[in-house]
Amino acid sequence: MSLKPEITNKINKLKKEKNAVILAHCYQNIEIDEIADFVGDSLYLSRRASETDADIIVFAGVYFMAETAKILSPHKKVLLPRPESGCLMADMINAEELRKFKAKHPGASVVCYVNSEAEIKAESDICCTSANAVKVVKSLPAEEILFVPDRGLGAYIAGQIPEKKVTSYYGYCPTHMRILPEDILELKNRYKNAEVLVHPECHMEIIKLADFVGSTSGIMNRVKQSGSDCFIIATERGVLERLQRDYPERHFVLASEKAICENMKWNRPEDVLISLEKEVHEVFVEENIRQKAYTAIKKMLDISRATPAGK
Ligand code: 13P
Ligand code: SF4
């Protein structure tokens, strides 16, 4: 589906007038890419947010992503066109629960997934995204790591770094957990030569069936480098749609029709237009929390080198 030219024109004009940029996550409705300046995964967009000299950032994504942009760019106006777009996983832990979790594991280092609110980042030693989680955890001297909030990614990290004790919180991503082993087995049977590409938020039983495990950018780079012409994509539908658009000569199958993040799909180009035009739905972070959260994110950005998957 292509955007109405009047919407595209209005947004492009406003971007110039207001010195604004639009950042879009790969799980957004694909037509958003037509008006976005940068499209990619969480790590890529965090980097773009930290580097832009725009006055306004419109974040086409979910709340924690816009909040992360605000933490990195406190003097810029950050807008989330649909403010109700939260991340269900991020909502599974609050600061009080994290403090209790930490109290049970004195001496452990706390690593928070970027899919968490500012208060959680402020209580953590370092942040990570799915693209750099293993690298971040390996970089820490502590033997015990508390990983919050995603038990899926936590289990994957634990498997990659057996020399460390990784204790995960119980959070999970409902979108990725809806992908079942039988979905993959059935598709593997149907598409015998397909490569199975899996996001590490999936259940361990899905990860065991993967030919490749990686973040959004990891999956996209894998397709770029692979000689295969058929892929089973075990992550959110937006990734599949972008791969189909970018590689029309190859065949992509979604591991499950249920792998859709509803919160990512609320945002429409019309919402982007309204928020930019009226400068509404601004995201704020209390300064004391922001500074502590900034430290955790900055440490991550310093130790990880981006694997860009975007425009
Ligand atoms: P990425 O870090 O791969 O962008 O994933 C973000 C996310 O929300 C996955 O569910
Ligand atoms: Fe959150 Fe899962 Fe949606 Fe990602 S896919 S934003 S982890 S609910």
Tags for this model:
disordered C terminus; Rossmann fold; 4-stranded parallel sheet; 12 strands; single chain; 311 residues; binds 1,3-dihydroxyacetonephosphate; binds iron/sulfur cluster
Model description:
This protein has 311 residues and is an alpha/beta fold. 43% of the residues lie in helices and 16% in strands. The chain is built from 15 helices and 12 strands. The chain is globular. Residues 306-311 have low confidence and may be disordered. It binds 1,3-dihydroxyacetonephosphate (13P) and iron/sulfur cluster.
Radius of gyration using CA atoms only = 19 Å
Structural class: alpha/beta
Ions and ligands = 1,3-dihydroxyacetonephosphate, iron/sulfur cluster
Helix content: 40-55%
* Low-pLDDT sequence parts: 306-311
CATH superfamily of the largest domain: NadA-like
Number of strands: 12
- Whole-number count of domains: 3
> What is the count of helical runs?
15
Rounded mean pLDDT score:
95
Strand order of the largest sheet: 2-1-3-4
CATH class of the largest domain: Alpha Beta
Largest sheet: 4 strands, parallel
Order of helices and strands: HEEHEHEHEHEHEHEHHEHEHEHEHHH
The shape, in one word, is globular
Quaternary class: single chain
CATH architecture of the largest domain: 3-Layer(aba) Sandwich
Q: What is the beta-strand fraction? A: 15-25%
Straight-line N-to-C gap? 19 Å
The CATH topology of the largest domain comes to: Rossmann fold
